[in-house]
Amino acid sequence: MRTSFNKLLKPSEQQEQLPLIYPLLISLLAGGVFSFALAPYHYWWLAILSPALLYATLRNRSPKHAALIGWAYGFGLWFVGVFWLYTSIHVYGDTNSALSVLLIALMAITMGLFTAVQTWVYRRFFPETPLTFAPLWVFFEWAKTWVFTGFPWLFAGYAFTERFLDNYAPLFGIFGVSFVVIILACALVEIIQKRVFWIIPSAILLIGAFAASFIQFVTSKNEMPLSVSLVQGNIPQDRKWLAEYQVKTLEIYTDLTSKEWGRDLIVWPESSIPMPQTEIQPFLNSMAYQAKNMNSAWVTGIIYIDPKTSQQENRLMYYNSIMASGHEAEGLYKKQRLVPFGEYIPLSGLLAWVLPAMQNDPSMAGFSRGDNNQHALSIKNHKLGAAICYEVAYPNLTRRNAQNSDFLITVSNDAWFTGTAGPQQHLQMVQMRAKENGRWFIRATNTGVTAFINEQGQIVKRAPMDEAIVLRGDLPAMQGETLYTRLSDWPVLIFSALLLLLGLKFRPRKIDVSFKSRR
């Protein structure tokens, strides 16, 4: 047993190294191309090639050099991968082009530190092997879900949504898929370097993905499907919060809804009602009355002012919320995870001069965070686990909301990022959450992508983007729980920790990081 592990964890042979500038440029390029593995491009093989190049460039490097190489990779990853933020900062934030690019670069510099620390730890404490590189990758992806409230974007596993390896998602979630992706990426490097043993674990992982496709955790309930109408109002972001456009917004949504009464569920997207419930109670009462008379449930995104907490805090407490009313419908869900520069401005007092237009946007006024473990929405004897916009990027949050639910529902406003890859990447995350938890996802958005996603993470129906339209579907309620819903991320995190402990135990007493540089 010890001999086997020693063989797996054997450090690389000493070899001449290229000057540092070359691996820095290679890793920068590798990070930059990674996002093309994701939606809307779907060049999934880049999710193998990109981390494989990073793994190869770290060969025999000192911890200091490894940190620089990792930082270069992380900068390329984030600068290219979330450049869609440019639209919200420049177009809707009224910030000039140069400053907008600079802000994205500063964000990429900061987020790149995750990979810098990851690669430094890898070369400082562990032998060079996929069995230490992949677990560290998983831990740092996981850290992006909670460090400084988290920015859980650009995970390796998302590239394989609806692409074979996602069969691991109901078992171990997105981090399980990412683990397999990184093992295969590193194994590719090892095989090219004639360590052919890595063909065996690679084959086992691929066979495992095939076998996982036959495991059935959930089944549909023997009930009539839920008839659902999703209303996409297509309100431009630059008009959405204008006082003079509020009535027009309500007219657009009510006109689109007028032919949908009688359906089981009608859903309006995030903040489709552009004012707090305290300012529009007669309208809400009228809509609830119509819904009740027509045996429909009505769910809408709305700004909610909580009178109880406002009194306790001695100030108005705003919540980005989903409210259910009408026939056999009740519930209020308050968003738990707020997106920086999408709903509130971090350090807004200091950044007022940077994003002047956003300072007068009510959606940026500083929403409060909803409580953990809120009740699901109740719709016609069904439980709907809710998520608002950015929250679906958090696997464990969506998992908690999915427990004891029949469906999952998310509302969003991606008009901030119209014409970019952002909305498509966002949709891909919803697909993964559906697959992880074995539930249909109902997704209503302002400008797109509005869609119905089944329990396998497949888009069954989607509305065209940037059109005012209603999307209709009949959805079966699901029962049962996936392994991931029951156990969360713990299996893959514990397994990764054990691999790292083995790496520490069987590593050389002193990892040789010296090398000869070519002049």
Automatic annotation (TrEMBL):
Residues 231-477 form the CN hydrolase domain. The keyword Cell cycle does not apply. It is found in: Cell membrane. Pathway: Protein modification; lipoprotein biosynthesis (N-acyl transfer). It is a multi-pass membrane protein. Its EC number is 2.3.1.269. Keywords: Acyltransferase, Cell membrane, Membrane, Transferase, Transmembrane, Transmembrane helix. PROSITE patterns: CN_HYDROLASE. InterPro entries: Apolipo_AcylTrfase, C-N_Hydrolase, C-N_Hydrolase_sf, LNT_N. The keyword Membrane applies. Pfam families: CN_hydrolase, LNT_N. SUPFAM superfamilies: Carbon-nitrogen hydrolase. PANTHER family: APOLIPOPROTEIN N-ACYLTRANSFERASE (PTHR38686:SF1). Belongs to the CN hydrolase family. Apolipoprotein N-acyltransferase subfamily. This is Apolipoprotein N-acyltransferase. The gene is lnt.
